[in-house]
Amino acid sequence: MKKQSIPLLSPAIGTHRELVSFHFGPEDSGQKIYVQSTLHADETPAMLTTVLLKRRLLELEAQGALAAEIVVVPVANPVGLGQYVLGQFLGRFDLASGKNFNRNFLMFPRLLERARESLGTDPVANIQTVRQLMSAELNEQKPLTEFESLQLALQKLSFDADVVIDLHCSLEAVMHLYTSEAGWPDFEPLSRYLGARASLLATDSGAAAFDEMYSLLWWQLQQKLPAHQPVGTGTVAVTVECRGQRDVSYAVAQQDADALVDYLVWRKAIRGEPKPLPELPELLAPATPLAGSEQFYAPVSGILVHRANIGDSIRAGDPLFDIIDPLTDETTTISSKTDGVFYMRRAIRFVTAGAPLGRVTGTKPLRTGVLLGA
Are residues 138 and 263 in the same domain? Predict the structure, then answer.
């Protein structure tokens, strides 16, 4: 294992942060796996999973079992990790700019034009050419803030990975994941190993999130380049939501770390006999379009009472929330309009009008535009 530290741009005199990564396995293996956690810095369950994964990779490396380069970044957001306001930990948004740490990554605006000038007829060789163009474009960036230097450092660590796994969690949720339609065949086994209760698919959520920066980029190249310049898929990427913020325990984190190891064996990144596909755990729920998930918002303010538990199978018409006005005693009930799994909800118990409440998966697209929340 090699440890690497990347200094971030200092925002003020006397301050300094760094991004730390751990590199396992042979660098010249022909396959690179990139795993990071807590890009939203207050999502601690994912961080504990990477700690246990790192311990297991150390053992496997000592046994000579690693067949790929595997990069693990347990703290993908040291900036957000230090953000406390009156004792409240705020790791999702950069307090200096208000920006979401997992939105609006560089989408390589010059890449398509440069690819048209550089690519040949070999789809495998073209992958390496595209990565060289990506590296050049990243090296041209001049970050002005600590936030921008963090995003750039993460991209430089991961742009040439064959597989990108971004570990997060929600507020109160069951295990679920997000990936693209094109990436789903690569990540269906991961969904099974993790025991995901929801797998949500979208080619373009409109948010330029970390995983989508890669999955969308390669898909767009394949769609927009001429037929005589074919490009294989350089990177498949997934966001894994490791349940809710309070789900921090050795048992749960070990379960998830073991699932990641099982998946890496399946991908031949770790030597060993993968579980035969017929013996993989069954999908607990089929993959559904992200655009089909129903989003619920509070129409009024009041005390929030949950009428369903996360993970429940929901039918259209089932009540999910009551909002009670403590002055008038009036109760407003919000019910589902779709069948699906109640896969996440907010941790708040008193809501203002317009506050997001939770989500239920659905099989039919309901929404367009930006599909991810702030």
Answer: yes
Q: What angle do CA 250, 102, 126 make, to 5 degrees?
A: 105
Do 285 and 297 belong together in one domain? no
* 186: alpha, beta or left? (left if phi > 0; alpha if psi -120 to 50): alpha
Q: Which residue has the tokens 């000592």?
A: 62
Q: Where are the beta strands (DSSP E) in the chain?
A: 2-7, 18-24, 32-37, 69-73, 84-85, 88-89, 163-170, 172-173, 176-179, 198-201, 236-244, 287-289, 294-297, 302-306, 313-314, 319-324, 331-335, 340-345, 350-351, 356-360
Same domain, 280 and 136: yes
Separation between Cα atoms, residue 119 and residue 129, nearest integer Å:
7
Please give the Cα distance from 6 to 13 (Å, whole number).
18
Q: Does 239 lie in the same domain as 307?
A: no
pLDDT tens track for 54-72: 999 999 999 999 999 999 9
Confirm if 210 and 166 have CB atoms less than 8 A apart. yes
- d(C-alpha 215, C-alpha 234), whole Å: 9
N residues, the chain: 374
- Rounded to the nearest 5 percent, the helix, strand and coil shares of the chain are 30, 25, 45
Q: Which of 229, 261, 289 is the last residue of a domain?
A: 289
Q: Is 175 helix (H, G, I), strand (E, B) or coil?
A: coil
**β-strand pairing of 176-179 with 2-7:** unpaired
Q: Is position 138 within any domain?
A: yes
pLDDT averages per 10-residue partition of the chain, 374 residues? 97 95 96 98 97 98 98 98 91 96 93 96 97 97 97 98 98 97 97 96 93 95 96 97 97 98 97 82 90 95 97 97 97 96 94 96 87 78
Mind listing the pLDDT tens digit for each residue in 102-119? 999 999 999 999 999 999
Question: Looking at this protein, which amino acid is placed at residue 268?
Answer: K
3-state secondary structure 180-223: CCCCHHHHHHHHHHHCCCEEEECCCCCCCCHHHHHHHHHHHHHH
- Which domain range does residue 84 map to? 2-289
Beta-bridge mates of residue 173 = 344
Task: Specify if 253 maps to a domain.
Answer: yes
- Domain endpoint, select from 289, 304, 330: 289
Count the domains in the chain: 2
